[in-house]
């Protein structure tokens, strides 16, 4: 194996690997320019780039509203923030584990998944991941559309009824138009590629943070204090009453970034070093998620004093402002925040995942368009309508499936293959990752079986009330069971 790797790839002193000159990758079923290994010379993202990436992705409306579902379930403010912090600290572990191969080998997530699932079997985790991303993309596109709707209304009071005052599908025609405009803006930027994305993230991170901090100061000043939410003791005064709600809530918090815990290679493939990508993520993810959620709690609590009711949705809150200039600035901030997270977190990965199905026919740009179309079909306006349902149904439910995939990937890369991959074979139908005879299906059925067993165990609690605890721990159950089963199956399999 060592001799073969010497012939096909070179490992630099910093641990990053690239193909030797003369190695040809041209199989149209497994390769296109978007899926190709990133050359070492192009791996230029720094610590700041990764910190800015996470700050930009965390500074979004779903994060701002994250505590609302927890407080709505009966937690007080500090219990909600502790839950968010714990969940994000835990999900950081698989994020870093799956970030390593991206920086080392320069490959995107669906190509990395080929090492465990097979060169064609990798489409199973890629599509499962892409479906979830489509849902997330739609949620953020709907939020961005609502921000545009509020902005247009601030400029012209008659805007909401400009295309008729009869709701269509529960919403005015101008709401659908605003949604379509924001959706199109996402697609347009995605078509410009990763370099523009990096620039957008670097600029959006400090801008959104400063503007949100200014909104916190304004809200506390107008309310002459912190408001009622900050003094509410909640419904769980003891550990015994808090724990049954804490566990599924932490699992839901993990679900919030369970998508990125799989596809971080899509970003770390551009990393300058393992240390820089790891430090940037460790510093930015748990802290930003907790701080931004805390800002949402403070502003919402103050809104109770200002407007007589708690307003969790910042788009609705800005709609109460009297100054058109203030509304315009606030809406621009929300649009920037939503745009930066949506493209980075919810479009890059599914675009690559769809491209992985048929690289010859589907480019990154085509994959981005497919993502946008599927996001509309998933009706995101219904997913976001109920904050508590959004936390405990949407996030908790899919975390089990993504946990099962993460378990297989981490077990395979760190414990089976010991971080050593044959880069060229990730793009070959008859290489070591074909997992079968020449001309076969190119699928590692051990990985597929382990994944679906993990999903089954994570979700069975939805159908069998006596096993509800398994669903409450969905991400942990899916990840641990799939990793354990995969390890056993691979140890028993022939090399």
What are the defining features of this structure?
68% helix, single chain, 22 helices, 495 residues, two-stranded antiparallel ribbon, mainly alpha
Verbal overview:
The model has no long low-confidence stretch (mean pLDDT 88). With 495 residues, the chain is mainly α. The chain has a single domain (7-16, 25-402, 416-435), classed as Hydantoin permease (Orthogonal Bundle), CATH 1.10.4160.10. The longest helix is centred in the middle third of the chain and has 34 residues, at 274-307. It has a two-stranded antiparallel ribbon with strand order 1-2. The N and C termini lie close together (12 Å). 68% of the residues lie in helices and 1% in strands. α5 packs parallel to α10 and α7 crosses α17 (364-377).
Distance between the termini: 12 Å
Given helix and strand content, the structural type is mainly alpha
Return residue spans where pLDDT drops below 50 for at least 5 consecutive residues.
none
CATH architecture: Orthogonal Bundle
What is the count of distinct domains?
1
Beta-strand content bin: under 5%
Helix fraction by DSSP (H/I, runs of at least 4): 55-70%
Shape: globular
Instruction: Give the strand order of the largest sheet, numbering strands 1, 2, ... along the chain.
Output: 1-2
Tally of extended strands? 2
Q: What is the CATH homologous superfamily assignment?
A: Hydantoin permease
InterPro entries: NCS1, Pur-cyt_permease, Uracil/uridine/allantoin_perm
Pfam families: Transp_cyt_pur
Membrane topology: Multi-pass membrane protein
Transmembrane segments: 51-71, 77-97, 117-139, 173-191, 203-220, 240-262, 282-303, 323-345, 366-384, 396-416, 447-467, 473-489
């Amino acid at each position: 194996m060592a001799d073969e790797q010497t012939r096909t790839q070179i490992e630099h002193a910093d641990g990053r690997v690239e193909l030797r000159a003369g190695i040809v990758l041209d199989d149209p079923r497994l390769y296109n320019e978007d899926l190709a290994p990133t050359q070492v010379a192009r791996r230029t993202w720094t610590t700041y780039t990764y910190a800015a990436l996470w700050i930009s992705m965390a500074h979004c409306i779903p994060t701002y509203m994250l505590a609302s579902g927890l407080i709505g379930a009966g937690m007080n403010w500090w219990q909600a923030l502790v839950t968010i912090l714990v969940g994000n600290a835990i999900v950081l572990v698989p994020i870093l584990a799956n970030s390593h191969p991206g920086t080392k080998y320069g490959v995107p997530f669906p190509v990395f998944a080929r090492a465990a699932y097979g060169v064609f079997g990798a489409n199973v985790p890629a599509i499962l991941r892409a479906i979830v991303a489509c849902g997330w993309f739609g949620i953020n596109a709907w939020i961005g559309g609502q921000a545009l709707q509020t902005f247009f209304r601030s400029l012209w009071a008659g805007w909401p009824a400009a295309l008729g005052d009869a709701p269509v599908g529960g919403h005015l025609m101008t709401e659908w138009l605003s949604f379509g405009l924001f959706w199109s803006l996402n697609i347009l930027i995605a078509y410009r590629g990763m370099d523009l994305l990096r620039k957008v993230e670097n600029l959006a991170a400090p801008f959104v943070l400063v503007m949100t901090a200014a909104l916190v100061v304004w809200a506390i000043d107008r309310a002459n204090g912190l408001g009622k939410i900050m003094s509410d003791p909640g419904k769980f005064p003891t550990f015994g009453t808090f724990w049954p709600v804490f566990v599924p809530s932490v699992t839901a918090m993990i679900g919030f970034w369970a998508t990125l815990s799989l596809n971080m290679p899509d970003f770390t493939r551009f990393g300058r070093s393992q240390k820089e990508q790891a430090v940037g993520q460790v510093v930015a993810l748990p802290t930003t998620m907790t701080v931004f959620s805390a800002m949402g709690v403070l502003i919402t609590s103050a809104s109770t004093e200002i407007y007589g009711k708690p307003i969790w949705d910042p788009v609705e809150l800005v709609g109460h402002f009297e100054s058109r200039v203030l509304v315009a600035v606030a809406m621009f901030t929300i649009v920037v925040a939503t745009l930066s997270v949506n493209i980075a977190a919810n479009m890059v990965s599914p675009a690559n995942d769809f491209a992985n199905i048929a690289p010859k026919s589907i480019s990154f740009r085509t994959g981005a368009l497919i993502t946008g179309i599927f996001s509309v079909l998933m009706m995101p306006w219904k997913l976001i309508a109920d904050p508590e349902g959004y936390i405990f149904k949407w996030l908790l439910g899919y975390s089990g499936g993504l946990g099962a995939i993460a378990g297989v990937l981490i077990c395979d890369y760190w414990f089976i293959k010991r971080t050593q991959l044959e880069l060229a074979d990730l793009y070959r139908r008859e290489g070591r990752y074909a997992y079968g005879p020449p001309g076969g299906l190119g699928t590692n059925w051990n990985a597929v079986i382990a994944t679906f067993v993990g999903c089954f165990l994570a979700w069975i609690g939805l159908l069998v009330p006596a096993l509800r605890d398994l669903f409450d721990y969905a991400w942990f159950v899916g990840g641990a069971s799939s990793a354990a089963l995969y390890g056993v199956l691979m140890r028993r399999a022939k090399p």
